[in-house]
Specification:
Pfam families: LysE (PF01810). This protein is mainly α. The chain is 79% helix and 0% strand.
């Protein structure tokens, strides 16, 4: 991989990792509702789970989707349905229950890692990285390099969203305000699906 291509990929990884998407919206909400420490497994699950996804795409899964595009479309619909379910869960999280405690719990490491497989933005990022920034010469080595660099660049980016949520935590102590914040996060999560659904329906 040339220096120019490497720098271009780092810029791609940074922009796609720092911009709003399902992972970042969920981490922002997790930071508010559960704090930084309890959200760490969620953050690590995203970084390592996405690494595995990129490696699998590089090892041939992307070619399967190219030959059978209906499978990719089906995956995007399943991912969208799951994101709608998560939005509903976020909208109802954080409010005190009858004992005064918090309802819900943060994503575990395995849940966050598995979520990457139904995250439409993650698939777009992974396929884009392999198709655009991975030279064919020493392909396997380059795939592993791309996956590792995405973790190095993306890890701090998702961390910033969690920290932002943690900083907002003190401002959202009121149960009503917290509920409104969670509803807002749920709405933004649903809104993040529009480009995916519009692309599927061909209305973009």
């Amino acid at each position: 991989m040339t220096t120019e291509l490497l720098l271009a990929f780092v810029a791609f990884a940074f922009v796609t990792s720092i911009t709003p998407g399902p992972n970042n919206m969920m981490l922002l909400a997790s930071g508010v509702n559960f704090g930084l420490r309890r959200s760490l497994p969620h953050m690590l699950g995203i970084s390592l789970g996405f690494m595995v996804l990129i490696i699998c795409v590089g090892l041939g899964l992307g070619q399967v989707f190219a030959q059978f595009p209906v499978l990719y479309t089906l995956l995007r619909y399943l991912g969208a349905a799951y994101l709608l379910y998560l939005a509903w869960k976020i909208a109802g999280s954080g409010a005190p229950d009858s004992t005064g405690g918090e309802r819900g719990k943060p994503f575990t490491f395995l849940q966050a890692a598995a979520f990457q497989w139904v995250n439409p933005k993650a698939w777009v990022m992974a396929i884009g990285a392999i198709a655009t920034y991975t030279p064919q010469e020493n392909f396997l080595v380059n795939v592993l390099l791309i996956a590792a660099l995405f973790a190095v660049v993306g890890g701090p980016c998702v961390g910033l969203w969690t920290v932002a949520g943690t900083l907002l935590r003190s401002w959202l102590r009121n149960a009503t305000v917290l509920r409104l914040f969670n509803i807002g996060m749920a709405v933004l999560l649903v809104a993040s699906l529009y480009p995916i659904l519009a692309d599927i329906k061909g209305v973009m």
